């Protein structure tokens, strides 16, 4: 199964990420978003960051999760290499996520494309399709 694919969009970047589990789809969505800026396959896993996100539903959880990587780039100059572990929980209708992200300082890498400014709700979806999970996202560049 492919991890993600980029879809046509007039002004921003739209992609779909896939996974056998919801966690894998979320991790692949993070990789797709960061890959807009840098070749994530070349980013070394030199350090780890703890990620936490909450949402009232799955799209808001995904948006909150992806925004953490925009914040980490802005505050810690951090590019994602991979998600080492992740857990998504649903307690009384409120979703939460904890993850460990591995990566390196952005200054060590040449950017491929524009910087992602934000993750939007435009065309966002998170759903199970048969035996796979799909997460669709549009990011503002």
Itemize the secondary structure elements and their pairings.
Elements: E1 4-7, E2 13-19, H1 22-35, E3 47-55, H2 58-76, E4 78-91, E5 94-105, E6 118-129, E7 132-140
Antiparallel strand pairs: 1-2, 2-7, 3-5, 4-5, 6-7
Largest sheet: 4 strands, antiparallel
The helix content is: 10-25%
**Into how many domains do the coordinates divide?**
1
The H-and-E topology, N to C, reads as EEHEHEEEE
- Radius of gyration from the alpha-carbon trace, in angstroms: 14 Å
| Annotation, overall tally of beta strands | 7
Strand order across the biggest sheet?
1-2-7-6
CATH class identity: Alpha Beta
Q: Low-confidence segments, ≥5 residues, pLDDT <50?
A: none
End-to-end gap: 27 Å
Structural class: alpha+beta
If classified by CATH, what would the architecture be? 3-Layer(bab) Sandwich
- Strand content is over 45%
User: How many helices in DSSP terms?
Assistant: 2
Molecular shape: globular
Reported by name, the CATH topology is Archease, Possible Chaperone, Chain: A, domain 1
pLDDT averaged over residues: 94
CATH superfamily: Archease domain
Folded structure, characterized:
This protein has 141 residues and is an alpha+beta fold. The strands form 2 sheets. It has a 4-stranded antiparallel β-sheet. A 3-stranded antiparallel β-sheet has the order 3-5-4, with helices on one face. It is built from 2 helices and 7 strands, in the order ββαβαββββ. It is globular, with a radius of gyration of 14 Å. The protein has a single domain (4-140), classed as Archease domain (Archease, Possible Chaperone, Chain: A, domain 1, 3-Layer(bab) Sandwich), CATH 3.55.10.10.
